Amino acid sequence: MTAEPVTPEQLSIPAIGVTTELVSLGLNTDRTVEVPRGPGRAGWFNQGPTPGQSGSSVILGHVDSVDGPAVFFRLRYLEQGDLVRVRLSDATLARFEVMRVATYANEAFPAERVYAGAIRHRALNLVTCGGEYDADAGGYQSNVVVYTRHLRTTAGEA
Fold first, then answer.
1. Domains of the chain with bracketed CATH
2. CA 98 to CA 148: how far, in whole Å?
3. Cα–Cα distance, 48 to 54 (Å, whole number)
């Protein structure tokens, strides 16, 4: 009998008042990264490592919706040193510290850096839309990326 894989279940970012259950995200048929269906939940990109494992884990969320702010609306306000917590399905809690926040124009988005699983350290990158919104050009023209580093993973606590 094989053990169930460990997956992230909940994300907490106290500095911006975010607590969200996580959905699992993969790739669309056109090989682009899937995004959460609704504005109220973030999602873990399941083609990469679980948060706390070696490599870059990625969690994505919407910045807003037609109804107003979404789960990652305040992501751009995070600062170096802010804490990010991910509760995992094995009752452990992975803790991360924000290292920096960057905004990239869509055409300059560093996908290899954000999603690269070959790095040796344990990182969690948070991604949402940002910059100017241009409906004629298809939406937001930039992405906000929060880069973190792993602090520790311990037996579960909320």
1. 8-155 (2.40.260.10)
2. 4
3. 10
Rounded (5°) CA angle 111-112-114: 60
Q: Where are the beta strands (DSSP E) in 48-158?
A: 55-60, 64-65, 68-69, 83-88, 92-105, 122-134, 139-155
Token digits of residue 139: 């939406």
pLDDT, tens digit, 9 for 90 and up, residues 33-72:
999 999 999 999 999 999 999 999 999 999 999 999 999 9
Pairwise CA distance, residues 158 & 154, whole Å: 11
73 within 8 A of 64, measured Cβ to Cβ = yes
The H-assigned helical ranges of 53-124 are 111-115
- Answer for the pair 155, 97: CB distance below 8 angstroms, yes or no: no
Pure H helices in the chain = 111-115
User: Is the alpha carbon torsion for 129, 131, 135, 138 positive or negative?
Assistant: negative
Question: How far is the C-alpha of 43 from the C-alpha of 66, rounded, in Å?
Answer: 19
pTM here is: 0.93
Q: What is the pLDDT of residues 97-136, one digit of tens each?
A: 999 999 999 999 999 899 985 577 899 999 999 998 999 9
Candidates 147, 138, 65; CA nearest to 104 is: 147
